[in-house]
Amino acid sequence: MTELPLIARARSHLNSVAFRTATTALTYQNLLDRSATLAAALLGEALDLQETRVALLVSPGFEYAAAQWAIWRAGGIKLPMCLSATEPEWEYALTDSGVSILMVDAPMAEKISPLCQKLGVRLVNLDSFTTALVKPLPEVSPERGAMILYTSGTTSKPKGVLTTHANIQSQIESLVRAWEWTPADRIPMFLPLHHIHGIINLVSCALWSGATIEPFSRFDAPTILDRVRADAYTLFMAVPTIYVKLIQALEAASPADRAAIVAGFAKMRLMVSGSAALPARVHEQWTALTGQKLLERYGMTEIGMAISNPYRGERRPGAVGIPLPGVEVQLKTETGVIVTGDDEPGEIQVRGPGVFRTYWNRPAASLESFDDGWFCTGDMAVRERGYYRIMGRLSVDIIKSGGYKLSALEIEAVLLEHPNIHECAVIGLPDDTWGEVVTAVVVLKESFPLELSALRDWCKGRVSAYKIPQRLRVVKELPRNAMGKVTKPVVRALF
Ligand code: MCA
Ligand code: AMP
């Protein structure tokens, strides 16, 4: 039987450690066995899940990876959800994508089970399957749907991005080749596992290569720095906010501690930054502190990684480099002309086998996002001396905070439900640590005031913590243009 390449490749690393924690070392053989058991549990009497959507709400680690492989081996489409999302956010993702099974671990089971009952979703608790199950698994062709990731855009509600097994394989192969992954690699995993950065760049590339992953439930600087000091890693991947936090931690450490930690960083073969712009200043500060030149790359949920500074060659602060293997990139000006030389800005358009198939159940949005076969990213860039430099986004309604992409429109829709908010405009304001911080400018209904802390409390349970405004400004009226549309650049100028 032909297996998915990601699974077949694991058979050449059977005794290597796939996941290591302080107390466990689980091998690729363990991962194959466990995912076969979970695939059998998912299938029950069925022979093939036939692209049934299976949501995943499991803490990062071995069980998450085994569940992910189980869904794929059983022929399902995986929908990883944010562990810290709110119930309305989970409900939206589950219903929008028509999920019929949800895989959970014990910590999440109690929280989500009433919602599953309400929606008629079958709950599969991983912890209930402790003994091995054996069942023939279906053959899954690479052209089948593999994963749906929800991403915010210029619409209020997030859209599901559907990628196939072939898309995922090409995204992985491109990065493994460009960044020279090997079975000897060891990498910490502290990024959330409902986005490409964690799922593809980190977990899937590592498992494709026979490398070892050390999972953490979240990013905690002291814990990670202890392991860096112990030379635990060869590779490191993070968002710019994390590098800023690490710089703060290193600067606060005693000279002896700092020297020991820096020695650990200096030995790594590669440190990557992405998901948001890495300020040149942070890049340079990191090099000055650790001797490491960060490799910055650019990607997007719809396309995986597209542009990267080279593993061997100049890593230029402030630039994202050149197209990755197998990825075609072009810039198109506002007037529809394809940029041919350096120094002329245009929108980044991407083509290649890694580009997603479609937005789930949104044919019109899918059609609109392509221009003659090229995916339109909505990001502006310029080529300078051969390297791309990101200039910003076309839409003012997309905010990047801590590496998360947020829709101002989605947050505005929630704020408008507040009993004392008459009108609002949400913007992202520049911030040294978070890249941008969510900022709400509101017109109140009544004369009684609204404090930021009260607004933040009200938002809890309605939207994920990272979408909750960090700053608030009350105004008498919002600036509008002649058409009556709120002018966000003028709103921004209030600060
Ligand atoms: C949390 N806080 C914030 C934000 N988030 N303040 C401002 N802006 C924010 N965005 C505050 C909290 O309210 C809290 O404040 C304090 O910071 C600590 O919160 P906590 O949640 O513990 O923060 P953290 O754990 O330190 O999180 C920071 C983080 C996290 C580790 C950088 O945001 C993260 O994992 N980001 C990565 C996201 C990611 O992987 N994105 C990839 C998607 P208080 O203490 O007052 O309560 S992009 C992608 O996949 C594409 C394809 C790509 O290119 O990679
Ligand atoms: P997401 O939709 O969460 O996949 O986020 C993708 C977006 O993150 C891109 O469209 C860019 O706006 C932004 N992004 C990713 N990497 C970089 C980078 N290195 N520099 C600037 N922006 C980036």
Write the layout of secondary structure elements.
Layout: H1 5-10, E1 17-20, E2 25-27, H2 28-43, E3 53-57, H3 62-73, E4 77-80, H4 87-96, E5 99-104, H5 106-119, E6 122-125, E7 145-151, E8 159-164, H6 165-178, E9 186-189, H7 196-209, E10 212-215, H8 221-229, E11 235-238, H9 240-252, H10 255-267, E12 270-273, H11 280-290, E13 295-300, E14 304-308, E15 322-323, E16 328-332, E17 346-351, E18 358-359, H12 363-368, E19 370-371, E20 374-384, E21 387-393, E22 398-401, E23 404-407, H13 408-415, E24 421-431, E25 435-444, H14 452-459, E26 471-474, H15 488-492
Parallel strand pairs: 3-4, 3-5, 5-6, 9-10, 11-12, 12-13, 25-26
Antiparallel strand pairs: 1-2, 7-8, 8-18, 13-14, 14-15, 16-17, 17-20, 19-20, 20-21, 22-23, 24-25
Helix pairs in contact: 2-3, 6-7, 8-10, 9-11
The site of methylmalonyl-coenzyme A (MCA) has 26 residues, from helix 7, helix 9, strand 13 and strand 23.
What does this structure look like?
With 495 residues, this protein is α/β, with parallel strands linked by helices. Among the domains are: 5-140, Rossmann fold, CATH 3.40.50.980; 398-492, GMP Synthetase, Chain A, domain 3. The protein has 15 helices and 26 strands. The strands form 8 sheets. It has a 5-stranded mixed beta sheet with strand order 11-12-13-14-15. Strands 16, 17, 19, 20 and 21 form a 5-stranded antiparallel beta sheet that branches. Strand 1 (17-20) and strand 2 (25-27) form a beta hairpin. Helix 2 packs across helix 3 and helix 8 (221-229) crosses helix 10. Adenosine monophosphate is lined by residues 151, 195-196, 274-277, 296, 298-301, 320, 377, 379, 390, 393, 400, 405.
